[in-house]
Design goal:
CATH topology: Four Helix Bundle (Hemerythrin (Met), subunit A)
Structural class: mainly alpha
Largest sheet: 2 strands, antiparallel
Order of helices and strands: HHHHHHEEHH
Number of domains: 1
CATH class: Mainly Alpha
Number of helices: 8
CATH architecture: Up-down Bundle
Strand order of the largest sheet: 1-2
Distance between the termini: 40 Å
Strand content: under 5%
CATH superfamily: CDP-alcohol phosphotransferase transmembrane (TM) domain
Helix content: over 70%
Radius of gyration: 18 Å
Length: about 200
């Protein structure tokens, strides 16, 4: 098995460990969940970079890399609803978009068509990861003692700045997710309209 595919599989394993840690009651579990999610996100960056650099393209990678990304991101957002860190309606938009685009790609693959990633999709992914990390930082920065409070607890408009940043990050992620999904579905409408 090549290195990019190993990184993809490690992302699936890290997702499982991330969820176990997030819902555990161990000391500093939210900080550890933040670290695990950050490492998992980096595996996404590196598996793609290595695969492009070394020209390692496999059917496994084509299928599993985007699927592992979606599992990681959707798992985090769904967990946030349970922890009451994010409203369910925002998560429904994000998860619905990911399922719809995955379905579209599978439909296209059944017709021997490969759908390329879009620029908006890359911005969407970055915004989703930033939002997840900011939520985890907000949940854990007080565990880091005076340094965490000094860096992330600095008040702006009467609240620690990380509170307002996290709220903004959530909205940006939801808006970009919905917009990029609508653009992708519209641009590739010929794939599913002919089957209606």
């Amino acid at each position: 098995m090549n290195l990019p595919n190993k990184l993809t599989l490690s992302r699936l394993l890290l997702t499982l460990v991330f969820l176990i840690v997030l819902f555990s009651k161990t000391l500093f579990h939210e900080t550890l969940a933040l670290i695990l999610f950050s490492i998992a996100s980096l595996t996404d960056y590196f598996d793609g970079k290595i695969a492009r650099r070394d020209k390692i393209i496999t059917n496994f990678g084509i299928l599993m890399d985007p699927l592992a990304d979606k599992i990681l991101v959707c798992s985090a957002y769904i967990a946030f609803v349970d922890r009451d860190w994010m409203p369910a309606w925002m998560v429904v938009i994000i998860v619905s978009r990911e399922l719809a685009i995955t379905g579209l790609r599978l439909l296209a693959a059944s017709k021997n068509t490969v759908l390329a990633a879009e620029r908006y999709g890359k911005h969407k992914t970055i915004s989703q990861i930033v939002a997840i990390i900011s939520v985890l930082v907000l949940a854990s920065y007080v565990e880091w003692g005076p340094i965490g409070v000094a860096v992330f607890g600095l008040p702006i408009f009467g609240k620690p700045w990380v509170v307002n940043f996290t709220a903004l990050a959530k909205w940006v992620a939801v808006i970009l997710t919905a917009y990029s999904g609508a653009v992708y579905l519209w641009k590739n409408r010929d794939i599913y309209i002919q089957d209606l």
